[in-house]
Q: What sequence folds into this?
C-alpha cells in the first residue's frame, strides 16, 4: 500500500531520485519551501521508507566494467533451502548487480557486470556453477542499452508529476 503524497512531497521525491546530490536548499527552492520544512519532509519520507537510500551511479564503461550479461538461471531443484542458498551466495558476489526470482521456465534473472568475457567465464565456472545448485544458465550479452533509469514513474501515482523534473 502506498502512502499519500502531496504535491510538494511528490516534487521532492522526483528531484532527489534524479539527483541525490542536490542540496536541501536547492530542493527547497525548486519546490517553493524554506530549507527547514523541506529537510523535515525529506526526513519524514526516509522514516516512512519512501526513500530507501541515496546512491551515486557510476559509469561502468569508464571504469572498465563494460561487459554486461543478463543470465537466466534454473536451479536443479528449486526447493526453499536451495533458493535461500542461491540468494545468500548471490548477495556476496559483487559481479551480480541485480537478482530477481521470476516465474516461468527459469528461477532467476541475474544481471552481471564484469571486465570482459573471460572474467564472465570465470564467474560462471567458479561461482555460479561452483555452487552445485544450477542446472541451466542462458546468458545474454548486453550489446546496447537503449534505456536505463533508476527513477520510479511517480506520474503514475501522483497527479502533481506530469513529466520529469529537470535538474540543472
A:
Amino acid at each position: 500500500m502506498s502512502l499519500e503524497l502531496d504535491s510538494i512531497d511528490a516534487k521532492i521525491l522526483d528531484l532527489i531520485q534524479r539527483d541525490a546530490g542536490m542540496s536541501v536548499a536547492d530542493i527547497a527552492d525548486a519546490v517553493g519551501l524554506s530549507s527547514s520544512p523541506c529537510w523535515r519532509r525529506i526526513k519524514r519520507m526516509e522514516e516512512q521508507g519512501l526513500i530507501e537510500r541515496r546512491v551515486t551511479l557510476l559509469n561502468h564503461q569508464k571504469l572498465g566494467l563494460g561487459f554486461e550479461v543478463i543470465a537466466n538461471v534454473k536451479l536443479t531443484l528449486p526447493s526453499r533451502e536451495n533458493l535461500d542458498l542461491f540468494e545468500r551466495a548471490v548477495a556476496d558476489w559483487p559481479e551480480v548487480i541485480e537478482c530477481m526470482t521470476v516465474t516461468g521456465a527459469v528461477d532467476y534473472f541475474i544481471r552481471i557486470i564484469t571486465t570482459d568475457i573471460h572474467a564472465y567465464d570465470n564467474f560462471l565456472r567458479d561461482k555460479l556453477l561452483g555452487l552445485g545448485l544450477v542446472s541451466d544458465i542462458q546468458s545474454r550479452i548486453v550489446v546496447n542499452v537503449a534505456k536505463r533509469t533508476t527513477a520510479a514513474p511517480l506520474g503514475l501515482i501522483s497527479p502533481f508529476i506530469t513529466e520529469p523534473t529537470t535538474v540543472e
The chain has a mean pLDDT of 92. The beta strands are 67-75, 96-101, 108-114, 134-141.
